[in-house]
Specification:
This protein is of the alpha+beta class. The protein contains 6 helices and 20 strands. About 15% of the residues lie in helices and about 30% in strands. The strands form 3 sheets. It has a 16-stranded mixed beta sheet that branches. A two-stranded antiparallel sheet has the order 3-4. A two-stranded antiparallel sheet has the order 13-14. A hairpin with a 7-residue loop joins β8 (about 220-225) and β9 (about 230-235). Residues about 1-20 have low confidence and may be disordered.
Length: about 450
């Protein structure tokens, strides 16, 4: 009886391992990475080239998130529809998904994952019957291909604007740098940089170039591969010429007086374990994704020597980028903070199903009222800077964070560059903060 029991347990264990390591079917890969291969999404009331304004927005309300619908309804902005584009990710990321996703599974706690070496951890379609579907979508975003393995935004202009008067109160010029230590697929070395004694997952480095009063202010975020471990975050204040470590609460403060929290960066810049995640369904929606080179760009400010021009802004207060929107397959994901003292009650994330970027977010205050609208325009890499062509990176290209309650906004104009030489490992160190600020 004892031997039989051991044999049964061994058989169950082998079956379980085999089930966990089952290869991902090609049908799953195709559906996840090439959702428009068999046809683009359509809507009877929406055609490429149309302008959506307060006069016709009610006819397309089902294809807009509630904040953007309200902006258009109020006459704050209008949007132009373009044809749906294929934003195919780099083949190396797709191949890594084929190789590793069959071994990937969630742990017992939120923030625990096993077997995710590289690629999309959970390429299967989410199900409303799966209580952890939202968490899987969050992992797909975190371990996604946003900015690829490393990239830089040089330069990056933020403008603080009064939405009522349109006055630009402040312009801040930055450089931003991103580097993945693990889950790498395209830039050597991959799948990981070694040695990596701290077991870091990602580094984000920010340096202020202008204006003079905050010049050389720098931010460094070191995120660990273990999601349950809190980030290291450091701030170098140029006028004090010293580095100080940020407390957990400071990542939800207004960053340098803007309408953004550090936690807002890229759509969500925090740990999976800091939130509860709920999948709310899949829809066809309009998202701000476009061909940068086909836009009417900003010809008055921030033109580079190489001729590159940033996205122009208009609408109420100059708070809305003059870009194009297209119908996309979208996952609706809701996150609410684990910490009851967090300043928000929840976020609604509108995730592009092909790229797993987050072009649209709505943030609600602790009372449950709509507070902030977060837009990150996504540009196709093949119609952008020449060095971005073929990278498969959906380029963050414009942003608008509107504080709906305060009638204020912060806007962002990018020059995003996918170039590994711009972000060496040495940038992601505390020593670099001191050396760059000296």
């Amino acid at each position: 009886m004892f031997k039989k029991t051991l044999s049964s347990l061994a058989l169950c264990a082998s079956v379980a391992v085999a089930a966990q390591a089952a290869p991902i079917s090609e049908d799953v890969i195709q559906q996840s990475f090439y959702p428009y291969a068999k046809g683009k999404p359509t809507a009877a009331s929406i055609q490429p080239g149309m302008v959506i304004s307060s006069a016709n927005v009610d006819a397309v309300k089902d294809y807009l998130d509630p904040a953007m619908y309200q902006f258009i309804k109020n006459g704050d902005t209008e949007i132009t529809v373009s044809d749906t584009m294929d934003f195919a990710l780099h083949d190396s990321y797709v191949e890594a998904t084929r190789k590793y996703a069959g071994d990937t599974r969630l742990g017992e706690k939120i923030g625990e994952i096993e077997g995710s070496e590289a690629g999309r951890p959970f390429p299967q379609e989410p199900s409303l019957d799966d209580p952890r579907a939202g968490e899987k979508l969050a992992w797909n975003y975190k371990n996604g291909y946003n900015w690829g393995d490393s990239a830089a935004i040089m330069p990056f202009y933020w403008k603080y604007r009064d939405m009522n008067s349109g006055k630009v109160e402040r312009t801040v010029k930055f450089n931003f740098h991103f580097l993945n230590y693990t889950h790498r697929t395209q830039q050597e070395p991959y799948p990981a940089i070694t040695p990596n004694p701290s077991n870091l997952f990602r580094g984000i480095y920010v340096q202020v170039l202008e204006p003079f009063d905050i010049k050389n202010t720098q931010l460094l975020i070191q995120r660990f591969d273990d999601d349950l471990k809190r980030d290291n975050a450091y701030l170098y204040l140029g006028f004090q010429r010293r580095v100080r470590r940020l407390s957990t609460g400071q990542v939800t403060d207004a960053f340098l007086g803007s309408d953004l929290m550090i936690e807002d960066f890229e759509g969500y810049n925090g740990r999976i374990s800091d939130m509860n995640w709920t999948y709310k369904g899949t829809k066809t929606m309009l998202l701000p994704m476009y061909n940068h080179n086909n836009l009417e760009l900003d010809t008055e400010t921030h033109a580079d020597d190489d001729g590159y021009q940033v996205v122009a802004f208009g609408g109420k207060g100059g708070c809305f980028p003059n870009i194009q929107w297209q119908l996309r397959k979208v996952y609706l994901l809701e996150s609410d903070p684990v910490d009851p003292n967090h300043p928000i009650s929840k976020r609604e994330h509108y995730i592009d199903a092909q790229t797993f970027t987050i072009p649209r977010n709505i943030t609600y205050d602790r009372k449950g009222d709509m507070w902030k609208s977060w837009l990150i325009g996504q540009a196709h890499p093949d119609y952008h800077l020449p060095q971005n062509k073929g990278t498969g990176v959906s380029i963050d290209d414009s942003f608008s964070m509107v504080d709906i309650q305060a009638n204020h906004c912060t806007t962002g104009q990018f020059k995003g560059i996918v170039d590994a030489t711009l972000t060496p490992e040495s940038k992601m160190t505390v020593q670099n903060l001191r050396a760059s600020g000296a």
